[in-house]
Amino acid sequence: MQSSERPSAPQYDERLTAPGPWWLIAALLGLSGGLVAMPLGVVPMLGGVIAAGALAAIGVSAYGSARVRVVAGSLVAGDARIPVEALGEPQALDAEEARAWRTYKADPRAFMLLRGYVPRAVRVEVTDPDDPTPYVYLSTRDPEALAAAIRTARAAAVAE
Q: Are 66 and 92 in contact (CB under 8 A)?
């Protein structure tokens, strides 16, 4: 591998999926759609179950499909792609500190990919002077592994 090439295999890859109870709620919403249409007959009731259940499932899966990756010298979080050279030292946050950074410590200019059902997170300063974003906040189930992957990718980028 030449020094200008970056590894394309993800050093970290996590999908922030919705928790199980959310899928139960989606199923119950589908059932309620059928109950609303029940006075109209069996076929409309089944249509209501299918339509309401599908809409609820689409909503849960769309919200729960966020992905956090460190790949090819970039931190990819949702739709954002940030070169690791533009990032400072990552900080793994426990549940209490993550809640503080989601609430009263939060900066409205920060990029935040947060999921309320994931209690821990990583916070990384953005060191690019041309970027007004002060930091990146990412919900993650394994903040230590994500922080380590960012550190490794930054060290590899600096060594190039």
A: no
Q: Give the β-pairing of 80-83 and 66-71.
A: unpaired
Separation CA 120–CA 95 (nearest Å)? 5
Residues whose CB falls within 8 Å of the CB of residue 53, separated by 6 or more in sequence, listed in order: 26, 27, 29, 30, 31, 33
pLDDT of residue 99: 95
Alpha-carbon torsion 115, 116, 118, 122, what sign? Answer: positive
pTM of the model: 0.80
pLDDT above 70 for 5: no
In what order do the strands lie in the sheet containing 135-139? 87-93, 121-126, 135-139, 111-113
pLDDT of 9 over the 70 cut? no
Q: How far does CA 66 lie from the centroid of its chain?
A: 4
